[in-house]
Amino acid sequence: MKQHPKDNDDGLFIAEMSISTLLLYREQRFHGYCLLSFSAWDATSLESLSDTEYSQFMTDVRTASKAIRITCNPDHMNYELLGNSNPHLHWHIVPRYKTDPRWGQPFGKAGLATNLKSIAIRCRNVNTGCLSNRSVPI
Questions:
Q1: Domain containing 53: what range?
Q2: CB 12 within 8 A of CB 26
Q3: How do residues 66-85 score in pLDDT, each as one tens digit?
């Protein structure tokens, strides 16, 4: 698989958004699991953001969620912002499916294997908001 210059140990690059970067998480416990990392500066908490940064980040969460929903067609979406093992501000956006081994429960370690490159490419090609304007082809 050809590497994108913005791929990293955690994920495959999907798009630069207004104030964050969308990555397809390499540990695909759930099909389409993504990370949305705040990229304007090394923030560690929501309350440290200015009102404008907060608004842009929340808009990016919504736009990324729409792209993931269109790409993966989940039954539900989970959102998590912890910062325990990596204090840099980032959201876990986790599509959930009724066929999940843990449907109706927190998303834990169980999950589904999937084709990372295929999901990243499809999500990049979704024509929603800033994703369609800022995604970079593989």
A1: 11-131
A2: yes
A3: 999 999 999 999 999 987 88
